[in-house]
Amino acid sequence: MQRPSNEPLLSSSMSSWDCMLPGPPSKNNGGAADLSAGGLLAYAAGSSLCIVDINSMQLVFTFPLPPHPSSAGTNAAASLSPFITAVRWSPLPLPHHLLENSSSHLLLSVGDRHGRISLIDFRLKSTLLHFDTSNSSSSKLGIQDLCWIQVRPDSWALGVISGSSLLSLYNTTTGRCFFKYDASPEYFACLRRDPFDARRFCALGLKGFLLSVKLLGDSENDVILQELQIRADTSELQRLERDSSGSSTNNGAPALAVFPNYVVKFTFSPHWKHVIFVGFPRELVVFDLQYQSVLSSAGLPRGCGKFLEVLPDANTEVLYCAHLDGKLSTWRRKEGEQVHMMCLMEELIPSIGTTVPSPSVLAVAISQSDSTLQSIRKLCSDASSIDLDFDNPFDFREESRIISKTHLISISDDGKIWKWLLTAEGSGDAQKDIAQKDKVTEVGKVPVPESESSTEVMSTNDPILDAITQSDETYSNYNHHSSPASIQEEVSFKTSLVGQLHLLSSTVTMLAVPSPSLTATLARGGNSPAVAVPLVALGTQSGMIDVIDISANAVASSFSVHSSVVRGLRWLGNSRLVSFSYTQGSEKTGGYINRLVVTCLRSGLNRTFRVLQKPERAPIRALRASSSGRYLLILFRDAPVEVWAMTKTPIMLRSLALPFTVLEWTLPTVPRPAQNKVSKSSSFLSRDHAPTRTSSPTKASSTDSKEAGGDGSQEEFSESFAFALVNGALGVFEVHGRRIRDFKPKWPSSSFVSSDGLITAMAYRLPHVVMGDRSGNIRWWDVTTGQSSSFNTHREGVRRIKFSPVVPGDRSRGRIAVLFYDNTFSVFDLDSSDPLVNALLQPQFPGTLVLELDWLPLRTEKNDPLVLCIAGADSSFRLIEVNVSDQKMGFIPQARSVKERFRPLPLSSPILLPTPHALALRMILQIGVKPMWFNTFSTTMNKTHSHIPGTPSSGDLRSYMLDSPRVGDSAVLEMLLKVLEPYREEGCLLDDQRVRLYASLVNKGFAARLAFSAAVFGESMEALFWLQLPQALKHMIHKLVNKSQKGPQPAVTPEIDEASMLSRISSKGKSMPGGGKKNPLGNGQLRLMAFEQAELWECASERIPWHEKLESEEAIQNHIHELVSVGNLEGAISLLLSTPPESSYFYANALQAVALSSAVSKSLLELSVKVVAANMVRTDRSLSGTHLLCAVGRYQEACSQLQDAGCWTDAATLAATHLKGSDYARVLQRWAEHVHHAEHNIWRALILYVAAGALQEALAALREAQLPDTAAMFIFACHEILDEFLSIPDFDESDSSTKSNKLDLPGLNPENEDVIAVGEYYGQYQRKLVHLCMDSQPYSD
């Protein structure tokens, strides 16, 4: 293939083939891992980025980080890819606009140890952008952490910690840095984004320095900083600093490199705004950013390892903390306080079946999608008929007690990815009561007395969170000890191992491929010839042997064979391996202890042979096994070579006391036509055939003078090996049974023997011997004719030479792959008149060096590709396809797979589909498809939803759609179903757990289906919006029909005192703190979408006790503000009067106390207080003026002032306490506009718009955000909810006139021009989507 002269033979975009296995991650990667909301785990392993689907626990793709463009042209060592130290998925949602050249949303930001930052496009499998770090002081300073921050609705910045103390902000479109902050001498530890405000993030230092940053734009002037300090014990850190101060290598290095065992991490609470959880090495601190104070701290008990990571559970108010010693602790919040107590400690590395010493846990991540799916199940699905899965043996347990299920992923340094199911269970009776009350409250809308009111329990059974890959023996432990707090309900926690992905276990040291000849028989006896299998064996530094299945790109099995480095590895036929290692003897005895082991792949047994009682003088240097697997040569350092017959019990035939430098057995030759009949089945490498049975040209040695006898005795066969001696002499010996004799080859001319270079490598396939020496010369010799030739590679010494596999039709000598001592390789065509001219020179494999290589011996036809197996210095294993056209050799310019990859389970991850196909599936799920359409891959599936026959294309696929009112063009839906048919047949759309959840809610209306489809694609905020939309719309409809919620309402008086306000709150079914049974672990992420007055008031009330013990003047002022907001004027007055006279707040507090007292005593001081309040607001930056307005009942003005001051949540709390009707709606609508335009959180803004009755503004926001399909779904969902509301049987008779006259939603009237436009545009959108789907290639693995 012609290629521009300046283009490398192996460009970074196509680096290797689709088949690559990463090496194990290490501490040098700094625990770099990130789990996306769509269920894709990205983690760093050496200099490679690995993507794993956690639903099926399968490796999706491995991306070797290419060298930075700035390193082009430098020497090999300088252009190596450094360790990846930070990884973050972009938070971009699935793009809805149908642009052909739209950028992918599956982007990853990656930072490495040299301070370089890249943006990687997962779909293109290439680097999209290299950030400009060249002109900054962060160059060559390793990256500690990364964080995406929202700047505008469609624009994100990247926060970066470089080196020890430099925080930089980059534009993700241009890659330019626009802000820097140096915190030296502090060491920055990590960055996290605020889940309540995507413009805000925090950076935490090892010594407790906390930098809060908010971005209003992407320029230096748009950055707002706030510096805080968290008290922490830093005595250990100071000692470590003293110890490392003398090291020059630590100058400017990031914390993960300087203090690898001193980890400080923090996370934002997903339930409470402004609250963060900080894990210092031996202390867990709860910190309030608003109060700038520590709310609580808890030390680790003696014997517990230091904290490694702090992870919040979005379902419940529980923290999971990973520890450096490989344990996981569970911390539960004490009710009414921000105090967390440890209630469970578990092992993340089970002690059974692990090596000694035990592997280390490097990183942990918690699933974000579980919480959203549980909320959907709780609110939408009808779980009564679908809970139990009687085909699943793991489902027989008391599911009614389960409060929450969450998946946790841990990564260990032995190449394993562990999947854990974390379960919280309550006492059965209490959970039943809560569930019963929830059912009555939600379905029947019966008012609940205060003493019995409760929030909804998280869920009962949740089949969607059961593991797909259940392990044979579930590793689990229970903890039935309740929290010491008597007010808390007893909750037990359980940790179960439900899945594991095993990748390469250690640094690769050896590579071996099977290439058996026809003389190799099956291990179980008989005379059937052994076929070449699609397996590759890798020896590792830890003594393990990993066997790779090429067809699945996975580790098929792993054997613990040696206790030290595997130094040699060879196949014996296709089912046995022989390997060796050695250790030095004791100081007293000296010598070496050689260990030789034969491993049977079928039985897994390891058999040692040649076991000696005493250490030997010489260690083993290498092993050479014949292609039949019958003979083995053992080469020693400065000792005779031993020849062994590898029978069931190996026998040493004899030793050869010659000064050998290299020895190689002959490879199988081109089979004769009669022999080729063996391999008539479809080729493994063929792209046109299904992989029914793998076979290869299992070829006989051309020295076989006879066919195999009936008894299969060894004496019938002979095999030969070529060798070179120290003096440069060459020779060929033949082994016939137990006899070894000279092959008597025809010698080349005398000038052929080299005098200037020691022969270091050899390859032998009759009749050709190819040799390489330490001067870089390559020589070949025909042992039957004596012909010979040589050429110089102008490279360093030759380390390995490997003949490519040959098939009928190939030319005689073929091609060789040559590995040099500088760890680079080349491919030469020996049939060419000038091998150097037509050589495939590969001076540097992109990003890494090559340790070992060999050809994959599965080629059966001339048109099959040549594939090289590569073991990289980064411990990765890769396959490289070589283009073997007659004109020119070269690597193919794009990644191609030899065949469709075999997977034990389909990748049921919709996020992986091409964008048009993903949008098609999303549309089908939204409009509603019958669950029987899905073809799920599981035997535990409900029989009604299990495999269905493939539907003929001529049939009407529209019958699979629901009979609900048609949305859009029905012909479009049929086309989309046809597009998705290949995925459906493979079971690649949804796994059976999600299909069951969808089946339970598919008839629950648009909102439920919309929430489910958003959650499936990882868009949790959108899913929460659809979940809350029915409640928000009903809240608005109640106002429209002048119908308050059921239950007795007290008479409203102009002055609402504390008692009447509490009565009003309790009459809405909400309990006071501690007033009734609640879900013991909180309400999950639905708190993010709170809009009802009772919800906002209760949330604010629960925070008040956390701050009672804070004594600073600023904290007291904030506390007074909270008390006034919730209507507790007496508490505020008491706190104000307790102010000491020397306080600078004394006079202001006294004035507030007098004014508030007058409000309680109903004195009329409105005019004077209003004047004082205006003056105080004008001259004082405090919120005192707002409090005075509250004192005289001017709540609307007080809310406006709070909103002007940026206290949006406080304004909403105040309004929820004192306002209602249109006054409350005005506050909500202004809040919605702020959330939409300033915070860029469209889903939270939409809920507020709907609750405020501003449906037209909500629709306009969706159109402005270029979400045409969502705008149409919003209209349909609102009308459906309205119809459902009007059809409620207990709708009052007094409202029959309203019911008879169809109630129209303001702004969403079907005759409205905007509504008509949205409908028309949606039809165009559907048609455009069909065209894009037809043009897009299906996702192939």
UniProtKB/TrEMBL annotation:
Compositionally skewed regions (Basic and acidic residues) per UniProt: 431-442
Recorded superkingdom: Eukaryota
Segments forming domain WDR11 second beta-propeller: 503-905
Ranges of biased composition (kind: Polar residues): 451-462, 676-685, 692-703
Domain WDR11 TPR: 933-1333
Annotated WDR11 first beta-propeller domain residues: 23-501
GO (cellular component) term, any one: cytoplasm
Any Pfam family the entry gives: TPR_WDR11
Region of interest called Disordered, as start-end residue ranges on this chain: 431-462, 673-714
Xref: PANTHER family: WD REPEAT-CONTAINING PROTEIN 11
Protein name: WD repeat-containing protein 11
Gene source species: Fraxinus pennsylvanica
